[in-house]
Amino acid sequence: HIMQQFLIEALVVSAIGGVIGVILGLSTAALIAHFGTPVAYSLFPVVMAFSCAFLTGLLFGYLPARKAARLDPVAALATE
After folding, report:
1. What is the pLDDT of residue 76?
2. What end-to-end distance do the CA atoms of the chain give, in Å?
3. For the residues 14-28, what does the mean pLDDT come to?
4. CB 70 within 8 A of CB 38
5. Is residue 62's pLDDT more than 90?
6. Following CA atoms 35, 49, 10, 3 in sequence, which dihedral angle do they give, to the nearest 10 degrees?
7. What pLDDT score does 80 carry?
8. Contact by Cβ (8 Å): 22, 62
9. What is the Rg, in whole angstroms, of the alpha carbon atoms belonging to the chain?
10. Which residues contact 3 (CB under 8 A, 6 or more apart)?
11. Whole-number Å distance between alpha carbons of 2 and 40
12. Residue 69 and residue 76 in contact, taking contact as beta carbons nearer than 8 Å
């Protein structure tokens, strides 16, 4: 259960970061378009950016989760 809790936390944080990144990227593109520069939007780069953020969270969340799963549950939750 500890590993699952750590992985869920890592995935939620990375998903929120991915959504914020996509919103900032699209907002910046809209701001640039507002000043007259042509901007082309495509769904594929947006999905890839979010996927990279999500998979990075999964990868770098798995290692601490695996380490924490091997510890005593009280010690795992008390440490960073």
Report:
1. 64
2. 17
3. 93
4. no
5. no
6. 170
7. 60
8. no
9. 18
10. 65, 66, 68, 69
11. 44
12. yes
Residue with tokens 């900032």, as numbered in its chain:
24
The amino acid at residue 19 is V
Q: What is the DSSP letter of 71?
A: S
pTM for the predicted model, two decimal places? 0.74
DSSP for 15-40, written as a single string:
HHHHHHHHHHHHHHHHHHHHTT----
Structure tokens at 27: 């907002």
Are 15 and 53 a contacting pair, CB within 8 Å? Answer: yes
Q: Which two tokens stand for residue 56?
A: 């990075």
Q: How far apart are CA 22 and CA 79, in angstroms?
A: 32
Amino acid at 37: T
What gap in Å lies between CA 7 and CA 9, rounded to an integer? Answer: 5
The first and second tokens of residue 10, run together, are 């890592």
SS3 content of the chain, % helix, strand, coil (to 5): 80, 0, 20
Residue of 13, 10, 21, 3 lying closest to 58 (CA atoms):
10
